[in-house]
Amino acid sequence: MVSIISAFFKIRKPASALLLSSSLALAGCFHSGPELHSSEGKIMGTTYHVKWASDSSKSEQELAQGVLAQLQLVDRLMSTYKPESELSRFNQSEPGSWFDFSPETFEVFQIAQGVSDISGGAFDITVGKLVNLWGFGPDLRPIKIPDDATLSSELSKVGYQHLKYQADGDKVLKETAMYVDLSAVAKGYSVDLAAKYLESQGVTDYLVEVGGEVMLSGHKPDGQPWRIAIESPVVGERRAQDVLELDRGAVATSGDYRNYFEEDGVRYSHTIDPRTGRPIGHNLASVTVIDDTVARADALATSFMVMGPEQGMEVAVKNDIAVLFIVRRDGKFVEETSPAFLQRIKRLEE
User: Fold this and answer.
1) DSSP state string for 147-158
2) Burial of 141 (0-12, 13-18, 19+ CB in 10 A)
3) pTM, 2 dp
4) pLDDT tens across 22-35, in order?
5) CB–CB of 47/211 below 8 Å?
6) 3-state SS class at 294
7) Edge-to-edge strand ranges of the sheet holding 346-348
8) CA gap 86, 196 in Å, rounded
9) Which DSSP helix (H) or strand (E) runs through 106?
10) What is the pLDDT of residues 110-128, one digit of tens each?
């Protein structure tokens, strides 16, 4: 859905869930219940859309401002493109000292740690220098493909196990001169914060989307469930692969078909395997995860993109995670789902 070059999370997860905007808009025309409200804009170098059905005492503008404040908070704390952000200051700090984080950033570190454990290191927020080395971070595209010696040197600084935590005080210590990149989890976290804000204001029927990562709850004003479309992983096209209905849940999609570069006939994906230091090279085109929080779904989707279809599905089934894989096989896209995915969704014909 999103093709804007991000100033915050540089299209690390360009594949996305598409909002069915037309059906949502029409929903407001045929009911006598709560009104459909909406707000949208740009944040973190991408776009956001929020829709809610409510008779809240707060005005649409007040709720929209409250949502935006949550998104701006995450951007201010966790951007790697802002040198003054909390995360940038941590990256600039010397290893070996405890760094005081806000509760929000510390929580994102904890979510990332959990996904790193589940994935056996396929998801690793300390991969930032390698991401930059391949040209997918703030440093943009490399002048040339990194050589083995450079990759080996940077890879030696990577490893989520080199991060230590003190829950009392929200402190984090890095043991190496690593560069932490929260791109694959913080954007989803911002969706979670926005959803929590709406619920704190008495809004239970809503849909929040930032850069294609979605949290939805309840129903549209006409009583129908929210519907979202999963983008087909076709290069150069934008069309729906699947349309899903959910009563409540977080949906995040990751893919390798929109953010990459080619050199000497070789295609280099933006998804870097922290275990090898190199872009992934398997046939998994996109991953969609449904979970309870967007932050975790966001991180899990990236981890499965790193693992590939076979290892990824094994981990998903073992941990009862709802996933939809779209795999390239014999020139076609083949869908593979975990049992948990089928239990959580109702799939519709587009």
Assistant:
1) PHHHHHHHHTT-
2) exposed
3) 0.86
4) 333 333 334 456 78
5) yes
6) helix
7) 17-19, 226-231, 240-246, 346-348
8) 22
9) helix 103-119
10) 999 999 999 999 999 999 8
